[in-house]
Amino acid sequence: MSEARLVETFVELADTLIDDFDVIDFLQVLVDRCVELLDIDAVGLLLIDERGWLQLIATSNEQARLVELFQLQNEEGPCLDAFHTGASVSHPDLASAGDRWPRFAPAATEAGFAAVHALPMRLRSDVIGALNLFRPAVGELSEAAVRTAKALVAVATIGLLQERAIRTREILTHQLRTALQSRVVIEQAKGMVAERLGVDMATAFTALRGYARHNNRKLSDVAGTVIADSTAALELLSDPDHRRT
Amino acid sequence: MDGGDDFGRLTRVHAWVAEHAGRLQLPVAERALCETAVDRLRMNGAGITVGDGSGWPETRYSTDTLSKRLAELQITVGEGPSVIVLRTGAPVLAADLDSVLSQHRWPLFAPLAVEAGARALFALPLRVGTKRVGVLALHRVDAGWLDMETLANSVEFAELAFLLLLDEQARSSMVDSELAAERWPLDSPQVHQATGMIAVQAAIGLEDAFARLRARAFADRRRLADLAADVVARRLRFDVY
Questions:
Q1: Residue B180 pLDDT > 80, yes or no?
Q2: B237 has pLDDT over 90
Q3: A161 — pLDDT class (breaks 50, 70, 90)
Q4: Is A17 on the interface with B (CB under 8 A)?
Q5: Residue ranges per domain, chain A?
Q6: Is A169 on the interface with B (CB under 8 A)?
Q7: Does residue B175 belong to the interface with chain A, where contact is any CB pair within 8 Å?
Q8: What is the CATH topology of the domain spanning A3-169?
Q9: In this complex, which of B132, B177, B197 lies closest to A194 when CB atoms are compared?
């Protein structure tokens, strides 16, 4: 394993706070680097979605993809165990793992995998997914490889959680600005309507709201139309229905 | 927890605010936060203004009239530490508003702020990444820099203010965003109403109308809200020249 390549990978995985971040690309990098750096056969990665369901996000090859899908479908396998317990799960000889995973073990063996090592994607009490490392030969993964795998997964997990937290904050920040903006726009529109029609603020507001309700539009949208073109204010009282509602 | 790491510091600031809120039976929100900041950071006043530099800033809470006045003055003249924070997202610490530097940097705001009784103004952004949503403004009636401990705590007060605003937003957007927008408490709705009226009277855009209102308030040395009230009550018009 090249140390320079390892360092490069860590840098790559830490960089989640970029503008065009794509979670699928990011996890595909994690999966591909695991195969490359850990000298293993195949990797599969499951991640929870917004509603808490595990989804298959990335695999290094087709066999791994099928085995992971099989795990999800049957709700059984090392990846699910690692996810539910938050601890690493491994088996050095899948051919004799039929007791533990009666459906998964034969399927994995059939796909050509002899041993498996699953790692949770966990930060403190948050478990957001799990990674399966498959090997073609019987035996435990080397201690060095396990250490490297854990470090890669930890960096990826922190990056993902950070990215999620920041996106959530950005969405709320945007909503907050929009709420403030529409509130201000409503007051400005009231002023324009009041001035153009020679009425007081309460009457102007009633006219705006009446028009919005009558036309099944949002008050802030109607206010936006008025401030974009103040002559639209005239339309609000052109229909006698809205005059005194 | 020794407060050495930032996580511990934010937790401690949160505990201070919660303790103050508990004692006065207040919600853990803007008022409790500003009052606690004044107490713990040895300030004379604090206020939270929401806005992003492109739109119309709104003062959400002020602990005292000077704090409110400082916020309004900055909106009126369009310059000052909080204005820079809303525009750029970077903190602005003015340890002496009466210094040559401050007077040069804010030729309109600094003399008025000193005249109003303030000597130091520390403006901290409420932001995530490059996206900002407001400012926590802390003032003192005496000049002087913040020591490192106070500065570090000030930053955490701003972070907490930001988190509280987002919490509130998360709750209201779950209810009904349209209703939440209507309920949003505006500091001075008449300023925006007057802006709309002036835009029609002078046949100009809203930005220009707002600028006219602010220029008049500055020239007449009157409060923006008072002038706006005159426009709304139709005691004052801004017609085409």
A1: no
A2: yes
A3: confident
A4: yes
A5: 3-169, 177-242
A6: yes
A7: no
A8: Beta-Lactamase (3.30.450)
A9: B197
